[in-house]
Amino acid sequence: MKYVKGRIDEAILVCVYYGANGERLIRRGHKMALMADCPLYILTVDPSPVDAFDEEKSRYIERWKELSEELQVEEFIILDNEKRPTPKVIGEVAKKHNITQIIVGQSAQTRWEEITKGSFINVLLREVPFVDFHIVSVQRPGTHEPFERFEKGVHAYLVKNGDEQYKIGFTCPKHTSIEGIFFKEIGTDFDNGIFKFTFEEKMYELDIAEGSVTDPENIPAKAKIIFA
């Protein structure tokens, strides 16, 4: 299904493979697409034909389709029985849909693992040199500890940037702000990561995409009052 978006000069592509982190990547892409008011595409590639998928693969595909409808994704793309190199396939899809940003996951358990290695990225950059890449780290299978996901934390400030919109800054602002620590995700040139701060002796964590808070509902109500 096609959905009308405000911007047509931006488009985001999320590449997913089977595993629990696929939904997380899709939701991350959805937040970014909402902020940019641009189309979001979901891509999964498999060397086997769809009719040969086992129950587990089929379950993931169905869930991603449901999620795509729920989040009003522009298009869920599944390329099965695909024998071409993955970078070639991603590049072809990116060019067809005028993609400007690509999100991929970093995981040791999936076929997308190679995406995080320099040789693959170099090939992919040659295929689609016109896009920005977001490499999102995910959890190891069977553990609750993530990979090294963030750079060393730096001091930052949370400031209000309009109605229910908040952003982070790195110099002390003259207007009201909340001081905290920003942890930037490894592998991105943007201010993507998490912002942690303490308020009334309780620790809070906010997701940050391109310098803006994507989940302002997680800011405590009393903290929002100080921005009024």
UniProtKB/TrEMBL annotation:
GO molecular function, one term: phosphorelay sensor kinase activity
Gene3D superfamilies, per database record: HUPs
Keywords on record: Kinase, Transferase
Keyword Kinase: yes
Domain UspA, residue spans: 12-129
Pfam families named among the record's database cross-references: Usp (PF00582)
Any one of the GO CC terms: plasma membrane
InterPro entries in alphabetical order: Histidine_kinase_KdpD, Rossmann-like_a/b/a_fold, UspA
Domain of life of the native organism: Bacteria
Protein name, entry field: Histidine kinase
The species this protein was found in: Caryophanon tenue
